[in-house]
Design a protein that fits this description.
- By secondary structure, the protein is mainly alpha-helical.
- The chain has one domain.
- The protein contains six helices and two strands; from the N terminus they run ααββαααα.
- Strands 1-2 form a two-stranded antiparallel sheet.
- A hairpin with a 2-residue loop joins β1 and β2.
Length: about 100
C-alpha cells in the first residue's frame, strides 16, 4: 500500500461531513441522556452533590465516542431492532424458530 493510499483512507473531510452533532465532545443525544440521568438522580435524592455525577458520566461517554462518534446510535439501533429471544443461549444467537 502506497503512502498516498494510506492518506486517502484517513480523510478528515469525510469524518467531518458524517460526524453527528456534538456538544462538549459527545453526541447531543448521549449528552442529553447523561443530563437526564444526573437530573433524575438529583430529584430523587434531593442532594446537590449528585450533580458531580455528571463528571464521570461525561468522561466515560467521551472515552467511548472518541474513536467512533456513531457508537451510541449503533448500540441504540441494535437494541431496538434486534431484541434478545428466550432461546438465544440454547442456539447461540437469536432464533425465532428451530
Amino acid at each position: 500500500m502506497s503512502e498516498a493510499q494510506a492518506k486517502a483512507e484517513v480523510a478528515p473531510l469525510v469524518l467531518g461531513l458524517t460526524r453527528p452533532r456534538m456538544f462538549w465532545g459527545v453526541p447531543i443525544g448521549l449528552f442529553v441522556g447523561e443530563l437526564m440521568i444526573v437530573v433524575m438522580t438529583f430529584l430523587n435524592t434531593k442532594n446537590l452533590a449528585m450533580f458531580l455525577l455528571f463528571l464521570p458520566l461525561h468522561a466515560a461517554a467521551y472515552v467511548i465516542t472518541v474513536r467512533d462518534p456513531h457508537l451510541p446510535n449503533v448500540v441504540r439501533v441494535r437494541i431496538a431492532k434486534c431484541p434478545w429471544t428466550k432461546n438465544r443461549h440454547f442456539w447461540g444467537g437469536n432464533s425465532y424458530e428451530p
